[in-house]
Amino acid sequence: MAKPPQLLGVATFHVRPGKEKEFLKLLQEGPFRLCEKMGGRAPSLYFRPQSNDYVATAHWADAKMANQYINSKEMMEWNKQATPMLRDAPTKELYEILQERTA
Predict the structure, then answer these.
(1) Which of 4, 53, 101, 102 is most buried (CB neighbours < 10 A)?
(2) Strands (E), 5-102
């Protein structure tokens, strides 16, 4: 049985009003596909209506894999494209998974 992911990567994006559809399309075409290609699992997206923020998450086996993704050439290019759609820089954090419910 495969070892479950040990880290949860969380990025919060403060999207400019009116740029939501463009941002979501760019997110699905870039980071989500790249995440799965680079070993991430279960990329998900959540919306906070009170602040118009989007929160993206993905599971990673270790910090090395997560950082390779974050610092990849593809993500650097994606960040350049996404920056004009954002109110300010996204926040990025890694959390250690202490317990995960399995079915």
Answers:
(1) 53
(2) 7-14, 41-48, 53-60, 91-96
Q: Please check the confidence at residue 82 and state whether its pLDDT lies above 60.
A: yes
Strands 53-60 vs 91-96: parallel, antiparallel or unpaired = unpaired
Q: Which of 66, 23, 58 is nearest to 42 (CA)?
A: 58
**C-beta neighbour count of 44 within 10 angstroms:** 10
- What global pTM score does this model have? 0.82
Which amino acid does the sequence have at 58?
A
Q: Which residue has the tokens 């350049």?
A: 80
Q: Is 57 left (phi over 0), alpha (psi -120 to 50) or beta?
A: beta
Which has more confidence, 82 or 100?
82
| Contacting residues for 20 by C-beta, under 8 A, at least 6 apart | 52
| Contacts with 11 (C-beta within 8 Å, 6 or more apart), sequence order | 55, 56, 57, 90, 91, 92, 93
- Mean pLDDT over residues 4-14, rounded? 86
